[in-house]
Amino acid sequence: MDILVVGSGGREHAICWSLAKSRHKSKLFCAPGNAGIASLAELVDIMSDDISGLVHWAKTYNPGLVIIGPETPLAMGLADELLKEGFLVFGPTKDGAQMEASKDFTKQILLSSLIPTARSVTFTDSLKAQDYLKKQKIPIVVKVDGLAAGKGVTVCETLEQAQLAVEEAMDKKVFGEAGAKVVIEEFLDGEEASILAFVDGETVIPMVSAQDHKRVFDGDKGPNTGGMGAYSPAPVVTPEMNKQILEKILKPTVKALRNRGIIYKGVLYAGLMITAEGPKVIEYNCRFGDPETQVVLPRLKTDFVEVCLAVAKGELNKIKIEWDERPTACVVMASEGYPGSYPKGKVIEGLETAAQYPDTFVFHAGTTQTNGKIVSNGGRVLCVTGIGDTIEKAIETAYQGVRAIQMDGAHYRRDIGWRALNR
Residue 370's CB: how many other CB atoms inside 10 A? Predict the structure, then answer.
């Protein structure tokens, strides 16, 4: 069976890597892919947001399954267009993708279904938003409603910072139309965790827990990024907490979508805050997380092709999903300047050395090949994942891989997994 994976990041490399391990001898294609994915799949020169181009390719080559990685093509309705043509698709339709594409839509789902989340108010008028802020307790959180590549959320520790966040989103339009509407919500105190779940429209099967590191610098300092590293499992998510998340958050969310006529298929990713009152939803994403995928999928023991097909066919209740007990950790190597402006075309060396270390996986996030050399082509360039008998060993393995790789100006956090280690 031929499988098309849509996307070009570390998440898609991890997806292709997991598919390539399947006992099913599938031929993999990836659009547009990257230099690392090229060793696993035939690259297709079509960008992930070129909906008509991807549908035309699918109609020409007839893949047995299409797996959509990034949120943008999902929010643009790629799954809808492929389903119209009769293709099996792993990924939600446009209406389901609103769970990530609109913070306001998600809040409506959560609040109407009494799913634990932060109190919030949505604004389309910046003056009203500013007036509201003056009466609120600080710290407070300002979120742009639409897609902003993981950078549209500001945790504001002063009123001035909150006012600036609203001004930049609504008046200066830093995030374009994504910031035409903002959600202002209470600050939740606790520890964050990520729970991704396979969903086939009705059955919900959570994956192993993970914890992301959003801030760019050690100690959770600096601006938010798409993610600078992750580890799995997150010790804060106990077995009892896992049951609570499934029964009080994930299942009710999928049911609420179904009640609105939305049959959600793919990955539903809950960003949670584990508070003194229990888990609460911070946000939902409509796809595999990045870099969470790079620590979750290496722990999957069940054949990934079979899981994806079960999701697409609505047969998730027919399979049992098993996980490796060993922890994983991932360190993101980023370009100089990220998450601001950054150079491209920096030569990367030492990839072969890092990949030869036991239990080490190097997933390419922003790379391309030029004149026979692999060079940087994005803000987050590489994701180095280690697996070990303990979280300490997994972290040590990941950093050993990182130290073997050289790229001019590369930077990375040196404290990935610090919360788990402090426990």
Answer: 13
**Beta carbons of 334 and 411 less than 8 angstroms apart:** yes
* Residue whose C-alpha is closest to residue 46's, from 6, 90, 93, 78: 6
> Cα(76)–Cα(247) distance, rounded to whole angstroms?
30
**Sheet with 191-200, edge to edge strand ranges:** 204-206, 191-200, 265-275, 278-285
User: Are 47 and 9 in contact, with CB atoms under 8 Å apart?
Assistant: no
The residue among 341, 382, 117 whose CA lies nearest residue 223 is 341
What is the DSSP code string of 302-337? S-HHHHHHHHHHT-GGG----B-SS-EEEEEEE-TT
- φ/ψ bin of 222: left (φ > 0), alpha (ψ from -120 to 50), beta (otherwise): left
Residue 25 confidence class, pLDDT cut points 50, 70, 90:
confident
The rounded distance, in Å, linking the Cα atoms of 87 and 312 is 10
Task: Count Cβ atoms below 10 Å from residue 240 Cβ, excluding itself.
Answer: 8
Q: Are the CB atoms for 101 and 71 separated by under 8 Å?
A: yes
* pLDDT one-digit tens code per residue, 150-169: 778 889 999 999 999 999 99
Reduced DSSP (H G I as helix, E B as strand, rest coil) percent helix, strand, coil of the chain, to 5: 35, 30, 35
42-64: b or e for each residue (b if 16 or more CB lie within 10 Å)?
ebbebbbebbeebbebbeeeebb
Does the reported pTM lie above 0.90? yes
Q: Omega before 32 cis (within 30°)?
A: yes
pLDDT at 8: 98
**Cβ–Cβ under 8 Å, residues 24 and 1:** yes
| Distance from C-alpha of 227 to C-alpha of 271, rounded to nearest angstrom | 13
- Give me the chain's average pLDDT, please: 96
CA distance 401 to 333: 11
Phi, psi angles (nearest 5°) of residue 285: -120, 155
Do 268 and 284 touch, CB atoms closer than 8 A? yes
Indicate whether 144 pLDDT > 80.
Answer: yes
Q: Are strands 89-90 and 120-123 parallel, antiparallel or unpaired?
A: unpaired
Where helices occur in 248-317 by DSSP H, the ranges are: 251-259, 293-296, 304-313
**Cα end-to-end distance, the chain, whole Å:** 45
